[in-house]
Design goal:
With about 180 residues, the protein is mainly α. The chain contains 7 helices and 3 strands, in the order αααααβαβαβ. Helix 7 links the parallel strand 2 and strand 3.
Length: about 180
């Protein structure tokens, strides 16, 4: 409730949350092209998703909604949402015994080959490094080349990976959002 403390805190964190548009930072970059690609999950993927969703709703309903469990409830909801997001990407993120492919991975691979054949490059971002590991294995199997960055990539390796992508030596750049 202290306005002065709030102002000081805002000043301290501002450099970490400042967002700038690309055209404000690098005038020589081309316009961003973004294409939305809708992917329909397979019947098996939809059934798995619904099973997990219904199970989570039942578990959350059992908890109740009193003041003592509200904090735990919010945390559990976030966990469930993350699990559902993972399932929508690839079942192996939640169920390691699940099959090697997914509708989204198959479509990503189709796009990657199409873009490579057109001489274009692609950036693939994911919050889940486990998903990027699955994508890397699929790219390796298909003979697609890529640069890779995640939060654990050392600074000198980051520079090398960016250089590989910018020089055109690879077909794609796989990036963790935390990188």
């Amino acid at each position: 409730g202290d306005p002065e403390a709030t102002r000081r805190l805002a000043r301290l964190v501002r450099p970490f949350i400042l967002r700038r548009r690309k055209d404000e930072v690098a005038l020589d970059l081309p316009a961003t092209s973004e294409v939305r690609v809708d992917v329909v999950l397979s019947t098996e993927e939809r059934e798995r998703y619904e099973r997990v969703r219904k199970s989570a709703l039942a578990e959350l309903a059992k908890e109740g909604n009193d003041g003592q469990t509200a904090g735990r409830q919010v945390f559990k909801v976030l966990v469930v949402l993350t699990r559902l997001r993972q399932l929508a990407c690839h079942a192996r993120l939640v169920e390691p015994q699940a099959g090697p492919s997914s509708a989204k991975l198959e479509r990503l691979m189709e796009l990657a080959v199409e873009l490579r054949d057109e001489g274009r490059k692609m950036l693939v971002f994911s919050q889940f490094t486990e998903l990027l590991a699955i994508v890397r294995a699929a790219f390796d199997a298909a003979g697609l080349t890529y640069a890779y960055l995640d939060g654990s990539t050392p600074a000198e390796r980051r520079i090398a990976e960016v250089d590989r992508f910018q020089s055109g030596a690879v077909d794609a750049f796989l990036l963790s959002l935390k990188a």
